[in-house]
Amino acid sequence: MLELRGQRVLLGVSGGIAAYKSADLVRRLREAGAEVRVVLTAGAEHFITATTLQALSGHPVRTSLWDAAAEAAMGHIELARWATQVLVAPATADLLARVAQGRADDLLTTLCLATEAPIAVAPAMNRVMWANPSTQANVATLRARGVRVLGPMAGSQACGETGEGRMREPADLVDDLAASAVPPRLAGRRLLVSAGPTFEDLDPVRFLGNRSSGRMGFAIAEAAAQVGAEVLLVAGPVKLATPVGVRRIDVRSAAEMHAAVIGALPGQDAYVGAAAVADYRPAAVADRKIKKGEGAMLLTLERTADILAEVAAHPARPRCVLGFAAETHDVADYARGKLAAKKVDAIAANLVGRPGSGFDADENALTLYWNGGEREFATARKTDLAHGLVGWIADRLEAG
Ligand code: C5P
What is the pLDDT of residue 354? Predict the structure, then answer.
């Protein structure tokens, strides 16, 4: 679990409906160990009260540059110096525009200009406002100046529309800040991750698939990017947003995943095979819908390539190759068997088929097996497990 112990987070809240989430955000930042001071813009005060945020942060909330009593207690320059991280969440289109222009027309924009701490913004607005070239130009300006732009996400919006513009969830924002506070152990390293299921077509309307959600692989890609790796994610058909800073190639079948992974192999430092790749595919794909007949139907399936084993035996083999094993029984024996048979550096094994872990769950428990050792990762969120596994990869790469 990443923490924010010792971090002093200045949370700026601007005036959008997502401001109601800042109460939860303050609580989570403090749970992660951060000290939090909150600044509200005049717009934000229409959506959430200073009283709520004062109670949750444990400190008076600042709203104005011209508050003599507050300036006497901790002046705005002192507040700008106090912060080790600045997060503006939600960041409205107007706030982004003002910060991009270098304005100092209220307390929050003044603090953004006066701080030397890293600044992150979590945009939240109507999808058309987000897509507007003015907003996009402002975001590009901020990015070019080193401001981290976290989100927005796609989904349903308070205005009744659906699209890109939802604020990134508070729990994810806390993870983003925590990750930026840890050393960039994989800076300069390249990591290739495969994730999700594969779908093997039978005919134009049917396929053979599996229940992998892709969450573990996506979490690993995200965790590696958070500690500085250049990450390429080869994703089977999943309903997940691309993690911040990760490049993604979408594939459908095992054959497509194989081609994408092998094609991207040269120059990678590590490969993580977290995908649930089909072991068999229909020997022939019908070009018309297969009609039902009397009695049973026989399908002939043929083997697919074992991507993980091929990566481990490839002339461009990355230094560290990690696979997964999802088993319903005898986990340790199968995992050690796979380690030897596939000639990989480690196998992360988990028990599937129990409620609340494995496929399609938020949490999981894993045991990592390698030649000469093993490590238990107790039940935790997949994002936390991912940081554990990425830490092990970093140890391996550092050991040379
Ligand atoms: O042999 P098994 O499927 O149990 O091994 C699981 C590991 O092998 C996973 O890391 C999975 O991504 C990888 N795998 C693969 N290509 C296949 C089958 C499995 O890369 N065709």
Answer: 66
